[in-house]
């Protein structure tokens, strides 16, 4: 009730943090912040670091006003100080190796500074006409004196590429009335999340030169509900440049998502360079130049990891592989059968890796031996796909010549076992689509994460079998749905398809996405196995022109469900009336960051608080 009262009175002053923190208290003192506000990054562990201090040039005496807090000085040593920070030339691309916690903090401080001072929002859309904008007042204005960054524990060595739950993402944030900000966390990723939240406390003045928070003092404690929070982006059906992909990663990080699933190959194109088999992308990509080179691939993974976002690469197989045909026709059965492709595949062109072929096995050995060592520095996972395998395609497979489950099932078991053995041997944990477990009855290793997309019942079945599950029910979290058909219909069949709805219509409004509870239908004793989920952006009708608005801000609705949980602290479904102005503000912040996110309401609604609602009962 308290939060409703608050919203009715002050909805236009949004106080909007997205996703919603676990605990968030604030008041209404205005503090300004200047571009040269110092960030102090303190030594990890801090209490016994003596010799470490010599390695870093920014160890300060404690007697200046903007210097370290004297109370802390005995315990904590400053690791590094930043004013108007910028990234070094090679920070993004770095070296071939993985990403360290130090690099994550470094990147996060620079990002936070840029977000506050270069990409901030003038919040006119969240105040009524003629609102009283805070302005700096000579003499009376309080400025933020410094921002203290305290890593209070030691990062695990795999901080940038953990398995679910291995990194503590919690953080706490305080901002005193006097202008001292402190962000503490047990890991570098927690620090990055804290800095992200910090930026959301600030607004730009209409003069474009001043920046302030109207919310001091602030106290926040925050931690995610689910360990795996991601977007799945299909870059095979349509081509996206690396900068299009990086923009989605930026948006994931800003929504505190920690996974980015790259569905990088499919039947329509193979845009991923495999250096030991260059013809795969040279012939399988839409154009020989629409390829992610090995260098691009490394760069994308690193760009994600440095923001605390672990990339999960998927090579979908044995279905969804027709594009291999262009380089290696002998490996693919039932390629591009027309006109009745729909008997053999979910989408044209039909085609599937042969299921009992030593040539296919040799190919997969070579593929995974090439690719997985390049995934390993940045991820602990590899996704082997396994959705929508069409049995009829194996009638045309000269190594099988059958569509009988009894014949195909043992071959599929062997296919998956071989792949997963190799994934494990190269140090990674396999992820598969639900069909392998639930439709093909493949016995999977207990380590395998099973990604569900078809139903809540499927999630319940996956966890009942003891596997960790990722949710993403297409009725809620498929972002491609509701645009209508992309197939063309012959006049003889167009009447049946009228008015051309797609299979997963309607369009999933953010409210529908937000209403999805990953735990619904899962008995309490198995809920710990639901490690999180992903929103899916399939690219039949999405390309660089509309990708941003297709994912954002609806992906933010997914991010809040996964970070904050579908229910509030009192166990009630989260309220759209509470979320809507915050999501609108998040949308403005994403736009400021260069992400073309769609509006969710007209300014009238966000300017006037809760006027755009139906059925409100107080
Ligand atoms: C850090 O770890 C401690 C001990 O496990 C825990 O109590 C705390 O909530 C964690 N997070 C923060 C932000 O301190
Ligand atoms: C990083 O690598 C990418 C792709 O290899 C390249 O396009 C980009 O210019 C590089 N960035 C920097 C800062 O070197
Ligand atoms: C699979 O291939 C092997 C070797 O060619 C053959 O002996 C076996 O009969 C095949 N299995 C099926 C189910 O066709
Ligand atoms: C297998 O093929 C036969 C003959 O084409 C067909 O009648 C049957 O429905 C197919 N079975 C499956 C499981 O698709
Ligand atoms: C998996 O098991 C179910 C239930 O026993 C069965 O209906 C289905 O045909 C099996 N699938 C395969 C591919 O064997
Ligand atoms: C809460 O949301 C669930 C869907 O996740 C819905 O089934 C249920 O009816 C809602 N409860 C209330 C009280 O509105």
TrEMBL record:
Active site: 388 (proton donor)
GO molecular function terms attached to this record: beta-N-acetylglucosaminidase activity
EC number assigned by the record: 3.2.1.52
Gene Ontology process terms (BP): carbohydrate metabolic process; glycosaminoglycan metabolic process
Catalyzed chemical reaction(s): Hydrolysis of terminal non-reducing N-acetyl-D-hexosamine residues in N-acetyl-beta-D-hexosaminides
CDD domains: GH20_HexA_HexB-like (cd06562)
Annotated signal sequence range: 1-19
Lineage: superkingdom: Eukaryota
Domain Beta-hexosaminidase eukaryotic type N-terminal: 17-201
Keywords: Glycoprotein, Glycosidase, Hydrolase, Signal
Stretches assigned to the Glycoside hydrolase family 20 catalytic domain: 226-565
Keyword Glycoprotein: yes
Cellular component GO terms, alphabetical: membrane
Entry-linked InterPro entries: Beta_hexosaminidase_sua/sub, GH, Glyco_hydro_20_cat, Hex-like_dom2, HEX_eukaryotic_N
Pfam families to which the protein is assigned, alphabetical: Glyco_hydro_20 (PF00728), Glycohydro_20b2 (PF14845)
Family note: Belongs to the glycosyl hydrolase 20 family.
Record protein name field: Beta-hexosaminidase
Protein source organism: Clathrospora elynae
Organismal lineage: Eukaryota, Fungi, Dikarya, Ascomycota, Pezizomycotina
């Amino acid at each position: 009730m308290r939060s409703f009262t608050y919203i009715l009175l002050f909805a236009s002053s949004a106080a909007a943090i997205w996703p919603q923190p676990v605990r968030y208290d604030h008041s209404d003192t205005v503090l300004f912040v200047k571009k040269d506000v110092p960030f102090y990054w303190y030594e990890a562990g801090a209490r016994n670091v003596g010799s470490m201090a010599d390695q870093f040039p920014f160890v300060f005496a404690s007697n200046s006003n903007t210097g370290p807090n004297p109370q802390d000085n005995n315990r904590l040593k400053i690791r590094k100080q930043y004013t108007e920070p910028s990234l070094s030339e090679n920070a993004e691309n770095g070296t071939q190796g993985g990403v360290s916690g130090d690099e994550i903090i470094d990147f996060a401080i620079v990002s936070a500074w840029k977000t506050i001072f270069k990409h901030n929002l003038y919040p006119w859309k969240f105040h009524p006409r003629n609102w009283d904008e805070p302005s700096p007042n000579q003499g009376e204005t309080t400025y933020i004196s410094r921002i203290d960054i305290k890593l209070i524990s030691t990062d695990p060595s795999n901080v940038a590429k953990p398995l679910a739950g291995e990194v503590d993402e919690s953080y706490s944030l305080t901002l005193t009335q006097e202008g001292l900000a402190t962000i503490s966390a047990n890991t570098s990723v927690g620090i990055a999340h804290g800095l992200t939240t910090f930026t959301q406390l600030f607004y730009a003045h209409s003069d474009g030169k001043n920046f302030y928070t109207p919310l001091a003092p602030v106290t926040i404690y925050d931690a995610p509900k689910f360990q795996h929070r991601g977007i799945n982006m299909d870059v095979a059906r349509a081509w996206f440049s690396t900068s299009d992909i990086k923009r989605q990663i930026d948006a994931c990080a800003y929504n505190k998502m920690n996974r980015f699933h790259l569905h990088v190959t499919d039947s329509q194109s193979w845009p991923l360079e495999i250096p030991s088999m260059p013809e795969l992308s040279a012939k399988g990509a839409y154009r020989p130049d629409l390829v992610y080179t090995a260098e691009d691939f490394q760069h994308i993974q690193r760009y994600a990891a440095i923001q605390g976002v672990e990339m999960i690469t998927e090579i979908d197989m044995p279905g969804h592989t027709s594009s291999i045909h262009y380089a290696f026709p002998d490996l693919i059965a039932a390629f591009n059968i027309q006109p009745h492709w729909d008997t053999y595949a979910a989408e044209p062109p039909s085609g599937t890796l042969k299921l009992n072929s030593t040539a296919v096995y040799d190919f997969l050995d070579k593929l995974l031996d090439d690719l997985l060592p390049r995934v390993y520095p940045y991820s602990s996972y590899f996704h082997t796909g396994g959705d929508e395998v069409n049995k009829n395609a194996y009638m045309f497979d000269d190594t099988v010549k059958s569509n009988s489950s009894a014949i195909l099932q043992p071959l599929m078991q062997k296919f998956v076992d071989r792949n997963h053995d190799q994934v494990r041997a190269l140090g990674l944990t396999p992820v598969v689509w639900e069909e392998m477990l639930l439709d093909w009855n493949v016995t999977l290793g207990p380590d395998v994460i099973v990604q569900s997309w078809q139903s809540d019942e499927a999630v319940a079945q996956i966890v009942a079998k003891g596997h960790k599950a990722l949710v993403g029910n297409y009725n809620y979290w498929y972002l491609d749905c509701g645009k209508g058909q992309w197939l063309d219909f012959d006049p003889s069949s167009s009447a049946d398809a009228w008015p051309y709805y797609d299979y997963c219509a309607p369009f999933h409004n953010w409210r529908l996405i937000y209403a999805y509870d990953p735990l619904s239908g899962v008995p309490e004793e198995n809920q710990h196995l639901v490690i999180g989920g992903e929103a899916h952006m399939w690219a039949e009708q999405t390309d660089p022109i509309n990708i941003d608005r297709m994912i954002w801000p609806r992906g933010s609705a997914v991010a809040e469900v996964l970070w904050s949980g579908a229910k509030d602290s009192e166990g009630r479904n989260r309220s759209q009336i509470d979320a809507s102005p915050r999501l609108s503000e998040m949308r403005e912040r994403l736009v400021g960051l260069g992400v073309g996110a769609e509006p969710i309401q007209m300014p009238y609604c966000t300017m006037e608080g809760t006027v755009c609602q139906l059925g409100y009962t107080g």
